[in-house]
Amino acid sequence: MAGNSTNVRVGYAGFAYKAAVGTAGPTDLATAWGVGWTDLGLIGADDGVTESNDEERDSFYAMGYEAPVRTQKRQKTTQFALTFIETNPTILGLYHDVDLDDMTEVGTGAGIAFTQSQNGDVNEFALGLDIVDGAKKMRFWMPRVMVAEKGEVTYKGDEMVGYELTFQALLSSDNVVMKRMYGGLELPE
């Protein structure tokens, strides 16, 4: 059995984009992320982009049999974990659950300030990811996500400050969890 070495991929570069729920995403691999999409900034190379797909299944057994006679998927959770190494207002807003509208400038160009409150609303938005390997691209678009987990932020002299965020895909109003596109592939004949 021979494989095809041109189908071996490396996630050499990754880009993440955020938009309001309901914002249209690209319909192909070549089109740029359009109006309303914000680039979230640099992603740390050490961790890259990690996808997890956790499924829970129920197993059904017949009397006198040790193996299940049927299984049924009960739920599936898709998450993407990224560590952003760029400190910018959008990432700070996602990490601290603060809308950009609730941030203020501290002097002209001197910085930003915001107040964190308790038990804020869940912030839902659309998320787009491009994973690039040379001329080949993988594109994932989730019309509705939330930040499900946040990692620790470390402030020290021999490390970059990083904001680890795990995004969980949610079902959209038109019954879509995710759209996936993989470049450089053809369907078998």
Structure characteristics:
189 residues, mainly beta, two-stranded antiparallel ribbon, 1 helix, 10 strands, 4% helix, 40% strand
Shape: globular
Question: What Rg, in angstroms, do the CA atoms define?
Answer: 20 Å
So what's the oligomer here?
single chain
Helix content: under 10%
Average pLDDT value? 89
Beta percentage is 35-45%
* H and E order: EEEEHEEEEEE
How many E strands?
A: 10
Q: Specify the structural class.
A: mainly beta
Largest sheet: 8 strands, antiparallel
Number of helices: 1
Low-pLDDT sequence parts: none
Straight-line distance between termini: 18 Å
Summarize the structure in words.
This protein is 4% helix and 40% strand. It has one helix spanning 89-96; strands at 13-19, 38-39, 49-60, 70-84, 104-105, 112-113, 124-133, 136-150, 163-169, 179-182. A hairpin with a 6-residue loop joins strand 5 (104-105) and strand 6 (112-113). The longest helix is centred in the middle third of the chain and has 8 residues, at 89-96. The protein starts with 12 loop residues before the first strand and ends in a 7-residue tail after the last strand. The model has no long low-confidence stretch (mean pLDDT 89).
